Amino acid sequence: MANLWNLIRGISISDLGKRRFLFHFYIEMDIVQVIQGNPWTFINHLLMFHRLEKGEDHLKVSLCFVDFWVQVHDIPVVFYNEQLARQFETFLDIFLDYDSKALAFGLKKILWHKKRTALFLHQYFYARFQYKRLTLFCFICGKLGY
């Protein structure tokens, strides 16, 4: 992983058990680079990061949210705006940024492939969603991580 991330000072990784690992970065710049490059996978499994605070119990950290780039397709170009993007927040969980089209969503929630959306009172269209670097996703039931 360190080679893939091109870290300046490197990293040490410790197995904490219960499918959790401690990644120790030696400089702030390296951890910022890795977190901003989310989502990451290893052997087709999603890696979820959480910055531990001093005294925080690593086993009590809830690892059920991850940031994803979401591309929305089949929207008429004249309606590309932040207001329309924020309408999708209700079923994608948390809207982070319109410019980067990044959203965070809970992994226990069903991911949408297509959603009917209203533009005007009686005018609808179907928006299609594509998730960047999404792994182990079942398109039948819409859940992550089998």
UniProtKB/TrEMBL annotation:
InterPro entries: At4g02000-like (IPR040256), DUF4283 (IPR025558). It comes from the Eukaryota. Residues 1-57 form the DUF4283 domain. This is DUF4283 domain-containing protein.
